[in-house]
Amino acid sequence: MTSSSDNIEGDEKTVQTNVTFASSNLAIAGILFTPEGRDGERLPAVVISHPGGGVKEQTVSIYAERLAQAGFAGLVFDAAYQGESEGLPRGLENPFQRAEDIKSAVSFLTTRADIDPERIGAMGICASGGYVPFAAQTDHRIRAVATVSAVDIRSLLVEGLGRTQGPEVLQALLDKAGELRTAEARGDAPVTEAWAPESAESLENAPTLYREAQDYYRTPRGGHCRSTNQWVLRSIDMIAQYGVPVVIARKTTHMAGPATMPS
């Protein structure tokens, strides 16, 4: 597939439509971006999955708008347990449900008369840069995969940034996850952790990942009222079971419409 960014330029006016679809019996809230005035056409489409802690109105909508300007349909959505989508406890980060949400988004697109089911791709940003390939390895309806600033969330949390974290840290976290599950069963509120630092204070020498996350998600630049910056700590026992595929068979596609989908 063509990788030149020049091929994704476009200036079409776009339409945003609020949509809802089901994923594991949960209602998922989404926004479908489409080029204006393309009635009667079957469009190539891209499902765009948001970062950990993000919501559909943030980074993913920027990409969806750009794709719609170039003649694609772009579907963004809040992951289950997050944003405007259903699911309790709020802020749960379940990689397997995240993959199911992506597959369910594809299913939703295949039901629409204005979408070509043979030209559906998926893009993942940050943590979803792992979730999208994980979903695509077993969903052959996803004809193209793209990632932006991809993060293997399992490696980051289990092995630490730069894989410098010893195995004893994971074992302690799994012990804690079990304790928290027991506490929730007894009626306690879920314990959460912050995705990104709330303040830039003392971040001068912090890794770029954390400085840039704070600068976007916790400031007016990119913050959103439904992006709470919290994830349920016991999610770690699900994250530890998840693994991003090392090898994915090359997906060939004919997604090109007015513009060519980047690889």
Description:
Helix 2 packs across helix 3. 29% of the residues lie in helices and 21% in strands. The protein is of the alpha/beta class and 263 residues long. The strands form 2 sheets. The protein has a 6-stranded mixed sheet with strand order 1-2-4-3-5-6. It has helices at 59-69, 95-110, 128-136, 153-159, 167-185, 208-217, 236-239, and strands spanning 14-23, 26-35, 43-49, 73-77, 115-125, 144-148, 192-194, 230-232. It folds into 2 domains: 5-155, Alpha/Beta hydrolase fold, catalytic domain (Rossmann fold), CATH 3.40.50.1820; 157-239, Arc Repressor Mutant, subunit A (Orthogonal Bundle), CATH 1.10.10.
Present the secondary structure layout:
Layout: E1 14-23, E2 26-35, E3 43-49, H1 59-69, E4 73-77, H2 95-110, E5 115-125, H3 128-136, E6 144-148, H4 153-159, H5 167-185, E7 192-194, H6 208-217, E8 230-232, H7 236-239
Parallel strand pairs: 3-4, 3-5, 5-6
Antiparallel strand pairs: 1-2, 2-4, 7-8
Q: What would you give as the CATH superfamily of the largest domain?
A: Alpha/Beta hydrolase fold, catalytic domain
Distance between the termini: 5 Å
Round the Cα radius of gyration to an integer and report it. 19 Å
Which regions have little confidence, pLDDT < 50, spanning 5+ residues?
1-7, 258-263
Which strand order do you get reading across the main beta sheet?
Answer: 1-2-4-3-5-6
| Biggest sheet architecture | 6 strands, mixed
What oligomeric state best describes the polypeptide chains here?
single chain
Q: What's the level 1 CATH class of the largest domain?
A: Alpha Beta
